[in-house]
Every structure is written in structure tokens, then in C-alpha cells.
Amino acid sequence: MESPKVFHQKGGHRLGGWLPGDPTHVDGWIRKLKKRIAARPRDLVPPIKAFQEMVYADQVLHRTMAAMFAEAYLRRKETPLGTPEVRNFEEFLVLLNGIMTTAPEYYECEERKAGREELEPCGLIGFPINALLDWPMGTVSGYDVFANSLVNQQFKKILSYWSQFLVTQDSRYVLVEGDPDGTPVVIPWLSETAKKEMVDVACSAVGEGAGCTGTETFQDIFNCKPQDPDYGFQSWDDFFTRTFVPGVRPVTAPSDDRVIVNACESAPFALRRNVSESAKFWIKGQPYSLENMLEWDPYTPQFVGGTVYQAFLSALSYHRWHSPVSGTVKKAYVINGSYYLENMYQGFKGPGGADDAAPNDSQAFLTAVATRALIFIEADNPDIGLMCVMPVGMAEVSSCQITVCEGDHVVKGQQLGMFHFGGSTHCLIFRPGVELDFHLYGQKPGPDASTNIRINTAIATVKR
Fold this sequence. Notes:
Elements: H1 23-39, H2 46-57, H3 59-77, H4 89-99, E1 105-107, E2 123-125, H5 128-132, H6 140-146, H7 149-166, H8 173-176, H9 192-204, H10 218-221, H11 236-240, E3 259-261, E4 267-272, H12 290-293, E5 307-312, E6 320-322, E7 327-335, H13 363-369, E8 372-379, E9 386-393, E10 399-402, E11 409-410, E12 415-420, E13 423-430, E14 436-438, E15 458-462
Antiparallel strand pairs: 1-2, 3-15, 4-5, 5-13, 6-12, 7-8, 7-11, 8-9, 9-13, 10-12, 14-15
């Protein structure tokens, strides 16, 4: 089935589809944002103002921040793309402030007309703040900025402030209408074109059991109220965390505790065995480092030499997490981490020197540095024993909400939690001695794996 042209424009799309692959379309969106802000200028919101004051008060951080934007300017100026749209820290703050009253937007892709001076947005701008930082975050100074714990603490406050808008009814403008200033969103999320894209993504996922017939509608796949103008969604966040209709994602072998099911609707990224307790995760090969991933949790030594399976979520994926096994929750908590830090070995390697995949190619690196949840489950099957589900946030809100508590008994396929906009990847971690046969439906784990495996479908079997 051929997907609509919306997300598959010339130049491709980045891993997960969160941003267009063609940087000129991102430039078009930034120019649109500048016009919107110029038409309705606003004072900096409190957490952004506090961020500005914090940077100005720290001479070293201020110089590093300025160097980050200056280096990005010089690096991009050397390419056919020319100078970047975001040139300095002060301009970034104004644009960041404008994002606080917007939700992720979705644009139809059209061929650029000859002689047209203005660049037009195209595709999904799913990570708008990431779009502003696309070049700066890939610089040497950018690494220093986003490794700074104070910067990350302040970004958490900024992103939390934005998340308050995303749960309001005002954030629904992208679902059916235009933006707050009256400029139409070319393709609202609940338009027939966008709904078809979301259905196509859900139906293209592979797994055991019967798939789609090709006649499914949005309401056949997702819980909603089609008779309502907003389909019953109360906010952008409510839409983003939409749930499947019962029966759409049945649990494989619910009574067979040898079968491990997929915890997230996601495509396989990596499968590593005999994982080390400590490793230099920031190097080019990005090996897993259990002590960093698990934040030195007392359970960490039990997983040394074990297995890590990692898979990434796309922009249109289902964003809730389910339990891969039946068992008892031993611990469940969130680790605060970085938001825009990426592996320096992944920067400036795309067309024209651009950082074509932003932090996406740093997927393994993110498992040790990004905001993430740790859910340790003692499986009912003693051949599995203690295992860990680790959802990892990336960029933007990166909110990991755990919906189970320590001591809860969960059954395979039961919800564990969800991403509130910004989830990127997740890991399943098993102890040494747990012998697993993985079945990934013909896909080899890696960045080129592009097909989601259905949530709740079998991905591995425990050998006896």
C-alpha cells in the first residue's frame, strides 16, 4: 500500500519521521514561526526568562552558548544550504517562546515552484524545538551546553510549561482548524489524509495473527468519537496518547509465560548480548553501559552479561507501554536526564554536512543520558526472573508517566505507562542465563529497520 506523499517527500524523512529529511522544509517552518511571532509578540514566559538570566549570569556558559550558535552558523554557511535560520541565543529564545503556544503541525508537501522566494513547510514538524537546535546541538560547544545539568534542569521547567498548554483545549487547533493566529494548518490531524496516514502506519505493523483488511477507518483502529468535531479528544496530548480499540492488538499466547511480547509499537534498533556493566557509551560504536543506563540501581549487577533489546518509535506510533511478561513490579521510577544531548560522533554527517538525523542516530547513547523510566518486573516464569522495561524520552517534553506501582502484579500486555509527547525508544533488559530466541519478523535490528512490530505480539521465546 503506497503511503500519501505527506511524510515521504523528496529528501526523505528522518528516523522515526519526527522531522522532514530536507532541511529547507524545516527552514520554511521556522520562517513561518518568525512571522507568527512578529504578528503577535509576547514577553518571554517565566521559565524561558529564568533560563536567559541563568545563562547571562554564568560567563562560561554564556560564552559556550554563543560559541554553539556561532559554530553552527559557520558550519552550515559552508554548505549549499547557506546560513541557518536561527543565528544566536537571543533569537532562539524568542522562537522558543513562540512554541509555547503551539502544538506539532502537519503540512502537505508540494514541489517548490520556480521563482518562489519563500520556503514552505513540508511534512511533520514533530519536534519543533529540535528543529531550532538541529545544527547547534551537533557542535562541540553544543555537547558541552546540553551536558550541563543546570541547562537540563531549566529545560525541564520550560518543557513542563509547554506541556501545560498541550493538555488544554486550545492545543486542539491542529486537529481540525488552523493555528491560533488564523493561519490554516494545511492538513489538520483529523483530516482524511492524515487519518489515512495514521491508519496506514498502524496497519503496516507486523506481528502474529490477522492484520488489517485494507478497509479500516481511523475509528476502527483508535478509540474516538467521530460524531464529535474533535473526535472526543480533549487536547493535543489526549490525541497523542490515543488508545487502540479493544481487539486491535491482541496479546500473543497470554497463558504461555515462555512467550515475551513487544512492549512498544516500534521497529527493532539493536539486539546485544553479554552487555557490560561499564562501557564508554559516548564513543562511535555506542556500546551499552548498564550502570549508566540503570543509573547505578542496586539491581544493576544482576544484569551484567545479559541481553538488551532496543526498538524505536515513529512519530505516528502508539505511545503507550505494555508489559512484555506477567509478573510483579519490584521498582518503578523515572530518571531525569538530558533533552538535546547527542553523541558527538553522530554530528554533521548528512547532506551538505547537516546533522541529518539530529539525536536519532544517537539512540543507543540516549539510553545512558536521556530522561527515562525504569520498571523492574519479577516475571512469574522463573526462567526469566527479574527483567527491566526502560522507555526513553528524546527531546521536547520527554515525559515518562508510569501507571503501575511497586508491588502490583501485571499480566502480559497490561499497560505500564506512556510517553506524553517526545518518546523515542525503549529497551528490554534481561539477566545473563536467560536464553532467548528472538523473532523480529524478518527485520535486522538497526537504523534501516523501518517497520513497526505490533505491541503485544510475540518477539521472543524463552528456551527451557
